[in-house]
Amino acid sequence: MLRPALPAALLLFIAVTLHSGAMDTLMQFLDFGAGVLALVSLSVTVLWGLAATDRMVLHSGHRLLAQAVHRGTGVAGLGFLGLHIWVKVAEGHVGTTSVAVPFTDGARPVLIGLGTLAAYVFVAVAVTGAVRGAFTGITASRWWRALHMSAYLAWGLALVHGLKSGRAAAGWAVAGYAICLAAVAVRLALRLRDSRRNSGELS
Fold this sequence. Notes:
membrane, 7 helices, mainly alpha
């Protein structure tokens, strides 16, 4: 008996939401918040991706957990990224051409273009990460690793895009971005140092 009432209840909920103006409030929040949520999620993804490669502190079980968190936050980041793009197009802040083709925005070609490039790289990294098993062999594995490492560059581009392309960021947001940048830089430097040390021991 409840099944026929569910569509009617859903329609009533939507009608009340639209009439109360809650949808406008939600769109105003998403206009700013979706991009921030995307950047935060992708920042956490980068940090957990670096943590998943640690072999000095983490055991294999911990690394598997870190990889799971890395993938989960990556999916969340891409979801928020898609929502961010949709809201900006729906609100008329950018055109579909600007979203699809980098550096074609009439008002802010460089800043919007950096965001578009970052989005393409993130999607490519996610897709190739999901089908990593297809990259067998030494050469293919190196190509996969190089593409996956390009996520760091895309993340840097996304930082610049997030800080400069929209409204002026609050002080706490700038501080948060700076902390994320410093954490990734330190962790990446430690990883490169460990890689060089291991290669020196093997040679």
